[in-house]
Specification:
The structure is a homodimer of 300-residue chains.
Chain A (H helix, E strand, L loop, with lengths): L6 E5 L5 H10 L5 E5 L11 H16 L5 E4 L2 H14 L5 E3 L1 H11 L4 E6 L1 H6 L1 H9 L4 E6 L3 H6 L6 H16 L4 E5 L7 H8 L4 E4 H16 L6 H7 L7 H6 L7 E4 L6 H9 L7 E2 L2 H12 L1
Parallel strand pairs in A: 1-2, 1-3, 2-9, 3-4, 5-6, 5-7, 7-8, 9-10
Chain lengths: 300, 300
């Protein structure tokens, strides 16, 4: 009756919690093991080689914890290293955030003009443009890196004139280009959705990659038959309608999930709560050298 | 005739180049080996344990390159790990940026009210307050973390309304507190000197730690007799007034120095040029795993 193993979700830091949030909302029976590489965050300004190495280390750390599906909840890694990860991670499906977001935008843009905002590495990689052009080569795609958005979110400056000015600074050209869809190509950006929407106006539809990635995860798990049994089925399997602690532990959701970080930074809990919309049940530390070992073991 | 070995300077990223710049200006005969941990930058939001570990790895990488003096050109590492580094680095003097900046401010504040701006880790550590109180316990010290300043500098938004608003956002309380000295406790901040000065007004003196750290390095090297011989003396030592390539190579300054980074990021050169006020002669990559090895070799 289904596959009770957890879903592995990783990000360079805590931004991927917006993807975890959507997975919990769509699939309340699923458990997640989340890994945030908080000791080496952010990845967005680093070189492709470094992003690939760090991404593979993160992925292998989750693979060792027996996850059934790997969600790369980091736009930067999804943009520059998803093929690399797919080549190196065997036995379980790997999904990134780029393809689901690109597909959602391509099917919604009547004007065939789509904007993409993200980190420097994401925009430079042209990953969204390539994914969109695979669907429809006639769509024009305009990218703009917005490196201030992540620190603004992490500073809690959501409803601030500084943020409004920064959004205008980055997006005024986008509006002039006549786009009708704007992909939020960084997992931190959904937190800024209101200020972005009010700046670009209601004529531009915002595409939240986190949401579409959760939907993609659900579709793939359905297709492969690796969804977790729903709580009612679990109760039946455990011998009738009486809930017991084993069944509760086998259940899904936030309380049954694990959250790992390579550094437990002082503002970890506050930032995590803002992104997840709930308090983390607990935080486990995975030393960064353990992540590095994941690579060495396989390489030498 | 002096000590021709280079000075080792390290930072979490490229900010420490403002210290290198002041060293070149004050001591044109000196060579520098600069190490920026650009693969793991920034350190400012990380835990103390992680900052200590990364800092020691950086320091040992420079020690292995036979430097005569170690300058910790990173306020975050200087704030939380300078004692730790002094205990673990033997044989050469180690200087941080906190003590020189604190001393300069303490001797200049007539009102005995000093402000300190820096990363979250620097301000939380109370390092400047402790250093100032060792000089004069009656001075009041007010700290304010300004996490947006580094990304603003790295985005090149020096003369921008976003930066002016951010400076106001962080500093308006400082002005109300009646400080007469403000320590720029992060090596990126001197780049924002003009906008900070115009925001806080001319009644508040800005203390640039980079400048005072270079002066401290000069004083220590004089006291220990480890200054590099001046070019004229070098020429004499090499047999008269004729310059030859050996003498030129043994000379100091930017062209004779080395610049190492743990990641050569796409905007490395542009950011480095803004901070150093000159183009880097070359960039050498030190893989991050080599930095980690520095710790393992000594620990196990």
């Amino acid at each position: 009756m289904g596959d009770s193993r957890p879903i592995g979700v990783f990000d360079s830091g805590l931004g991927g919690l917006t993807v975890a949030k959507e997975i919990f909302r769509l699939m309340p029976s699923e458990r997640i093991i989340y890994l945030g590489d908080t000791a080496r965050v952010p990845y967005g300004g680093k070189s492709e080689e470094t992003i690939r190495r760090f991404g593979l280390q993160d992925a292998r750390a989750l693979l060792d914890l027996d996850v059934k599906l790997l969600v790369v909840a980091c736009n930067t890694v999804s943009s520059v290293a998803i093929d690399y990860l797919e080549r190196h991670i065997k036995g379980i499906p790997v999904i990134g955030v780029v393809l689901p977001g690109a597909r959602a935008a391509a099917t919604r843009s009547a004007e065939k003009r789509i904007g993409v905002v993200g980190t420097a590495a994401t925009v430079r990689s042209m990953s969204y443009a390539r994914a969109i052009h695979n669907i429809d080569p006639n769509i024009k795609v305009y990218g703009k890196p917005c490196p201030l958005f992540v620190p603004l979110v992490e500073e809690g400056l959501i409803d601030s004139d500084i943020t409004r000015l920064a959004v205008q600074h980055y997006l005024y050209e986008m509006v002039d280009l006549g786009i009708d869809c704007l992909i939020l190509g960084c997992t931190h950006y959904p937190i800024l959705m209101e200020v972005i929407q009010s700046t670009v106006g209601n004529g531009i539809q915002l595409i939240d990659s986190a949401l579409w990635t959760a939907k993609e995860a659900q579709n793939i798990m359905k297709a492969l038959g690796i969804e977790s049994a729903a709580p009612s089925e679990q109760r039946e399997a455990a011998g009738g309608g009486v809930r017991n602690s084993v069944v509760d532990n086998a259940g899904g959701g936030l309380a049954a999930s694990r959250f790992l970080g390579s550094d437990v930074t002082p503002n970890f809990e506050a930032v995590a709560e803002a992104l997840l919309g709930a308090r983390l049940p607990s935080i486990e530390k995975v030393p960064v050298e353990e992540l590095e070992e994941k690579e060495k073991i396989k390489r030498f």
